[in-house]
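Researcher: Here's my situation. A collaborator sent me these components and asked whether they could plausibly form a single complex. I don't have experimental data yet, so a predicted model of the whole assembly would be a useful starting point for our discussion.
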Amino acid sequence: MSAFDLTKFYADWQIILPECFLFVWALFVLTLATLGKKDEPGRSGTFALWTILGALITAVWVGVTADGAAFGGTFVFDRLAVVFKEVVLGGVILTAISSIGTVGRLEVHRGEYYGLILLSAVGMLLMVSATELLTLYIAIELSTMGLYVLAAYHKGSRRSAEAGLKYVILGGISSAILLYGVAWLYGLTGTTNLAAIKDAVMNIYMSTGGFPPAMTLALIFVLAGFGFKLALAPFHMWAPDVYEGAPTPITAFLSVASKAAALAAFLRVFFVGLESAAMAWTQMIAALAALGMIVGNVTAIVQTNIKRMLAYSSVAQIGYILVGAVARDTWGATAISFYTMAYLFANMGAFICVIAFSERTGSDEIADYNGLAARSPVLAAFFALFLLSLTGIPPTAGFLAKYYVFLAAVNAGYLWLVIVGLLTSVIALYYYATVIRKMYFPSGETASTITVSKSLTLALVISTIGVLFFGVFPGPFVGWIQNAAQMLLAGK
Amino acid sequence: MVSDFAAVAVFLVLGAGFVLFNFLLAKLIRPSAPTPIKLSTYECGESPVGSAWIQFNVRFYLFALIFVIFDVEVVFLFPWAIVYRSLGLFALVEMLIFLAILIFGLFYAWRKGFLRWY
């Protein structure tokens, strides 16, 4: 290394500022956890909330002031990064707010709870910005390490321990598979940088007129690795058990923030890095999306536990999101980003309702939601709204999200996939509506009234605003993410 | 590109073959006269006590983890030390921050009482 350019280094650090900010304060929250005589949940929770808000503002600020690549092109802060960083941080904020009650009931390690959430969020933010496969891998590891521990946070509970163990083992296997795929890609192209991979793959195609079998192998491994992280069928088998056993705020965090980050990485890897190999992966993704929609929705019907039902429903939701991936153009990327945003608020909101319900009743069984409308009209109304948004009923954001995704697929000539999507949406309507029917038209006696705590009400109101706002006024936001998608595909 | 990796494969095959060949050769030419004492597990000259398959204290893992973190840290310190002269003050500050983060981990383990053996 010859002349050392200090200004270049400052520029690099400026681009990674939101992550640095979050990381420093995550360590601070962990320090608080060690210094106090007794674990005080309120203090670390308040600090965590301010930290996330600060990171949100920093991310917007960096998005406005700095733009471009850092650390030798391994890390980028572009428009897409802004969109997904806000989604991830939105998910983290809602998780932190809805965790307050859960943390209060913990007996040990209260302070570390928020520290681990923040560290995991750092990993997710890095994931959103990584433009090099090994950086991406390390970011994925950083985000899941915290989640492994958080999934097993109810120390005495067998289910929680099972969730943690399953998650760590299957997470480890999926990371290994992803890494193996990355190794194959490196073997084929001689690089791990996504922009360079794009050119190298194009060269392979140009010189041989096709792809070697190793390319298919690499695609399958990378797709399987992502499939595990996204809980995409047929790689979803860990999801129901982990979702059921983990503390509910963590389930929400897992199903929303970590998936949003993985989707951003998915867009970068498949829409940019492997774009020239699109003809090799489009069919695979179409098949997986169809499988996800069918398996997720059909299995969700027979669930009796609300968390398991939402787990299968989120398997189906990932299927819908990936319908947008067959389009491979600006519209596809826009539809995926918009769906992620709608999914953030609807799914987060649904899980917050589950938290609010189990906080008062201690139950996650669908049968116990019988007559919720009489016990707590507000909670029932919120829950119904989120379930309708997950189904895709106007005027919620879920409707527009599904519309954009299907539109992108029709334009790309995948009519059959859209038909599968529409048919499975009807199945989805059935099991979501079953819960709504139970809440509003109870059979038999209903129990006492349920009150919702202040923090959970706040989280519910934020989610509702999100669901309705993006459903009614999507215009400016869609324009914004469309711009981000264009810049991503143009390679800027 | 592929031929570069072929060298690795050849090295692997030759390396494994060399070891196997020597073991085989030794087995063919050495005398074999086993006694119970020769066949017993070597344990620093002590006579072995019980099975090695016992449940041991989980604290070993914590110590091992903390050790590994500081072990791996050196991997980053060596290249840094080599180019330190051309990097200057900024690199020193960066490395101090990195070390501070690692030391925080030790501090955390210490404060939480993981270093006490009881």
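Model: Some features of this prediction you could bring to your collaborator: The longest strand of chain A covers residues 68-70. Chain A touches chain B at residues 1-2, 4, 6, 9, 27, 30-31, 34-35, 187, 190 (CB under 8 Å).
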